[in-house]
Structure prediction request, 271 residues.
Amino acid sequence: MKHHAFLLAAWLGASALAAPLKIGVTPGSLADSVNVAAQEARKAGLEVQVIEFTDWTAPNTALEAGDIDLNYFQHQAFLDNAIRERGYRIESVGLGLLPNIGLYSKKHRSLADIPDGASVGVANDPVNQARGLLLLQSAGLLKLKDGSGAKASVADVVDNPRKLRLVEVEGPQLVRAIDDLALAQGYPAHFVNAGQPDLARRALRYSTVDDVYYAIRFVARSDRKGDPRIARFVGIYQSSDAVAQQIAKSFAGDGKLYSLPWRAAPVPGSR
Prediction:
């Protein structure tokens, strides 16, 4: 009887490995790099099905429901917020690419040129607003309340020596809003996608790999994180030269616009 149970367990394990790994992504640079990794995985005998979602809610809902095995679209700050709000039983199982952000201006050539009282655009959603404010703080333009960190909002600004006027803008609209602002938080990939790769490369300051809290994560259900197919796929993604080349292509071949944090030594933790 024990022998039959062992054979059954072995058969179930083999069946799980044979089933296609379903990974949810959002369109753009993330989907493009995952599709390349999926091709590499198939060559290695791991079947992968890539499913694109057009919003930032469905990938976690589908993962929680067990409709997909893995998703790849969110950074740790977004994930933490989703778990807090929805009670998802999901967690990060691997680091992906880190899209850097920048401080952009079409009117000024340096941060020193930003005048007192100028209008500065920041994202209006809590997760990305904090990231923009932290970059403004690192540039010496303002100071945030101690301990606010990744939860910082405009209400946490405790020192604003240039009396900058912080304007809250929807993240995707920052590309257009920059025309009317002295300075704005921006996403290089958005400028590349909007046909402005030259502007993407001209930020007055960029975030760096030290900003790893905002690296995109591979996320799985907590009760399925030990699935060997997941570890295998993440390993292929991180080690593939073809994937690295696709990521570079998506970011106009400019290393200032993104980082590959898993290549850092030692690999940083989740924060």
